[in-house]
Amino acid sequence: MIKAVVGANWGDEGKGKITDMLAEHSDVVIRFQGGANAGHTIVNPYGKFALHTLPSGVFYDHTTSIIGNGVALDVQALMRELKAIQDQKVPAPHLMVSNRAQIVMSYHKLLDAYEEERLAGASYGSTKSGIAPFYSDKFAKIGFQVSELFDEDTLKAKVKKICLMKNVLMEHLYHKPRLKEEDVLAELEEYREALRPYVADTSAFLNQCLKEGKTILLEGQLGTLKDPDHGIYPMVTSSSTLAGYGAIGAGVPPYEIKQIITVCKAYSSAVGAGEFVSEIFGEEADELRRRGGDGGEYGATTGRPRRMGWFDVVASKYGCRLQGATDVAFTVLDVLGYLDEIPVCTGYEMPDGTVTTDFPVTVDLAKCKPVLEVLPGWKCDIRGIRSYEELPENCRKYVEFIEERIGYPITMVSNGPKREDIIYRESPLKES
Ligand code: GDP
To answer: How far is the CA of 313 from the centre of ligand 1 (A)?
Structure first.
């Protein structure tokens, strides 16, 4: 069976920790979308790791880790990460790279950076990892598929064609040095050799695993609100962040995805630009940022301070719906233990004064104001607690209030960054 671990919000919900935890009982963990533009932070007996490309199952000897066809494969980042985990004494992972994955080229990163520079103040806050130029090229049918690396003639012809097109942009839009065919070819040859040991028909492998009754975990990157169709377009990422896309980005039948664990954070945070109705500022935001996550809310890839906000019922309810959540994993709840009172955004006030709990399209979002309800805090450290009943009453009330408002079952509560910091819970919303 297949389980998906995906984000309900803007990303950084703690998917890496939940995946790492569930990987213990999984045979395969596969990344199905996105690239090295976001990171998962994982704390386990080997140490603390920021993974950008490798699936979060790499720490177990019994799991196969797969980079699926839907991923924006940054070979340099992949090799760096493989080295970094082995430097920290993690055994070499069983890694497979889909022969249908496409490759992020160094000119994608350049184009990303040049475009951000050109847009200056109006930029998207891109991590300059080349993701948008990469996916644009994939769908314009001028990307490099891993399988093509092994066909010299295809490669040469394609490099020629691509350089011609890219150099128009390089020269006339960005006023930057032209690409040289021989450099692009050399880069591709380097990637071919680096990838050679890992390339496989991963969709066929997964199909076989399903036949053998194995457990497969799909690991999503970012969250619903960054989805190009259903998120806060255009301040989104360039590949679908939804569990449904797992079928495509991994090459598996959609009906095999039986469990969709949607990770939802106990407060809000976002990186990059874009609408964020429940955002808070000043000292209130600084304190939550300092105390948030595991050692502060700063981007795992960029180190950028994350934007902070209160839990947003409207965005999270929508986020869970689009994911098709069968289970909600409610994370970083321990962080809120310092607050006397905890505001929750329970609705959006529209310009005409009406209040909605349905997430609007981006043009309307900008006009919404948060409607806040305040819940009492629990004023203590809940880390180390392992059963739901042992949580302070106000803490349980917070969880239950949010569950009732979002309408999806919170079956896991995460109260710390470690694998074992998890509380399983019976939810009244879960059909047995
Ligand atoms: P991801 O991209 O969704 O995997 O999220 P990130 O790894 O970027 O951010 C989550 C951060 O919160 C990481 O630093 C995790 O170690 C940390 N984290 C995850 N779950 C918990 C939790 O329940 N409590 C605390 N305090 N930190 C957590």
So the answer is: 20
